[in-house]
Amino acid sequence: MNFSLGIDFGTSGARAMVIDAEGKIQAQAQYPFAESSNRDLAASWQRVLFTLIEQIPQEVRKEIKGIAIDGTSSTVLLCDRWGKPVTEPLLYNDARGLVVMERLKAIAPSNQVVLSASSSLAKLLWWEIEQMTAKDYYFLHQADWLAFLLHGKLGISDYHNALKLGYDPEQLCYPSWMEQLAITTILPTIIAPGMPVSEVTTETARHLGLQPNCVVCAGTTDSIAAFLASGAQQLGEAVTSLGSTLVLKLLSRNRIDDARYGIYSHRLGDYWLTGGASNTGGAVLRNFFTDEELESLSSQIDSNKESPLDYYPLIRVGDRFPVNDPSLQPKLKPRPTEPVEFLHGLLESIARIEARGYQLLQQLGATPLTRVYTAGGGAKNLAWTGIRERHLQVPILPPIYAEAAYGTARLARELGI
């Protein structure tokens, strides 16, 4: 038998999934993160990683031939030449890189995705000015370091995680403008996601009950893993994630990068996964309604009827896509007295933002949209789905697999995407 293991480190927990050569799930495990667990994050990640693998039945573990890991984009750490962390990891949403933004703007071209206070490169430059870097250190993303714990090879990353570090996935190299940085010696070597890195170490194989010839592959980010799990694979197919925020990813023949609108593209084989993330979404809905109220009120909405209310639903000031404006004000008025009308207006307005996002991608040259798979909690809301179909004018489908760990297992099985 030939099994593949995918491990997903998301924002709220971690999950492991084993699939066979036909893609059938053979085993899975999960580990929720404690909300207050911020002390010694790296040690916690290591414990979670090993615990997840140990939860997989031994008879399944011994058949695993490939492993891949995904992590949250721009969650990073520095470690020494033995792989021991020398800093606390900085999480995906850590914006302390704000202090280096003027320096970054003077170095990087205006359309670069690194021009964000929370980008991987901004975090690395912050460590540099804090005098926390050294020539024999290694800069790693969350997925890179977790994979190192299994295969023992330092300084290797993938071009999905490395996009916000400045790596050019089209030319397959670091760009020339990065050569003037003093920290280039600690940048990781970049390979394609899913490509084999090394077999597990002898100690890892013995400790976790894995075969010595089990290969650990380069990983990816959690959002791309979710795309790979969804079933979307043809040009023009997209995945909308309706979680706390609204995230759009469209498989396109053409690469679209436009910082004016918060748009960037990941390489996916010979194509591009282009899109952006808006701050609107489920978090706004839960700011006004409980889950029970959302279910009850949504059942009273006629999705064929357009709400006249025109909102820009945000919890706080600022959005990233399709309007990239940190000072954009939430628009949540007028508020009708009937809760069902207010909810209808919110769902309608979020659907308009989603449609505007896909229209913008196509206006800038992306492949025309043909169908949308929906991930996240909002996918269960039938009224919202009906409203979105009216705006998008394409079929909306549930994902074939909802868990990102499935997409990462597929990455390990196919050895490169």
Brief rundown of the structure:
The protein is built from twelve helices and 17 strands. The protein has 417 residues and is an alpha/beta fold.
Mean of residue pLDDT values: 94
How would you describe the shape?
globular
Task: Give the DSSP E fraction (strand runs of 2 or more residues).
Answer: 15-25%
Structural class: alpha/beta
Number of strands: 17
The main β sheet shows up as: 7 strands, mixed
Number of helices: 12
User: Distance between the terminal alpha carbons, to the nearest Å?
Assistant: 22 Å
Assign a percent range to the helix content: 25-40%
The rounded Rg comes to 21 Å
Order of helices and strands: EEEHHEEHHEHEEEHEEHEEEEHHHEHEH
Q: Catalogue the unreliable spans.
A: none
Oligomer: single chain
Explain the overall architecture:
The chain is an alpha/beta fold. Helix content is 30%, strand content 21%. The protein has 12 helices and 17 strands. It has helices spanning 41-55, 58-61, 101-107, 120-129, 142-151, 202-208, 222-230, 282-288, 291-298, 339-363, 382-392, 404-414, and strands at 3-9, 13-19, 25-32, 64-71, 76-79, 138-141, 156-158, 189-191, 196-199, 215-217, 220-221, 237-242, 246-252, 264-268, 271-278, 371-375, 396-397. The strands form 4 sheets. Strands 1, 2, 3, 4, 9, 10 and 11 form a 7-stranded mixed β-sheet that branches. A 6-stranded mixed β-sheet has the order 14-15-13-12-16-17, with helices on both faces. Strands 5-6 form a two-stranded antiparallel sheet. The chain is globular and about 65 Å long. The mean pLDDT is 94.
